[in-house]
Q: What sequence folds into this?
């Protein structure tokens, strides 16, 4: 089995993160399926206090992965972003959105966020 990719904890300490068992519970999946989602680029984890954790903002209130997040992660990966850079970009305020890209994804599903991510590759 391949290692689960992760970013360093580049988030503000106030950003809520969930352990993989907590993510599995919210998504109603086995932890192994959450690890597979991480390997497949549907989610990105950070390592906080030595433990893999997923930002809570990546999971909707109804228990699914935020619409548009996997596609945005793919676009950022194709642009050469590391997991650290992906997480930092998703959680950095962008006045032209307005707000953080993750907030725009949560609000609209992310067509504009993906366009901006694609522009970074140019």
A:
């Amino acid at each position: 089995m391949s290692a689960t990719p992760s970013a360093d904890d580049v988030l503000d300490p106030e950003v809520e993160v969930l352990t993989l068992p907590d993510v599995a519970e919210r998504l109603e999946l086995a932890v192994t399926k959450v690890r597979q989602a991480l390997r497949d680029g549907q989610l990105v984890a950070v390592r906080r206090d030595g433990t893999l954790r997923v930002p809570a903002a990546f999971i909707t209130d109804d228990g699914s992965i935020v619409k548009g997040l996997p596609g945005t992660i793919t676009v950022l990966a194709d642009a050469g972003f590391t997991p650290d850079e992906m997480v930092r970009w998703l959680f950095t305020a962008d006045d032209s959105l307005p707000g953080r890209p993750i907030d725009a994804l949560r609000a609209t599903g992310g067509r504009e966020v993906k366009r901006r991510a694609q522009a970074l590759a140019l």
Residues 7-120 form one domain. The chain has one domain: 7-120. The longest helix spans residues 69-78. The chain has a mean pLDDT of 91.
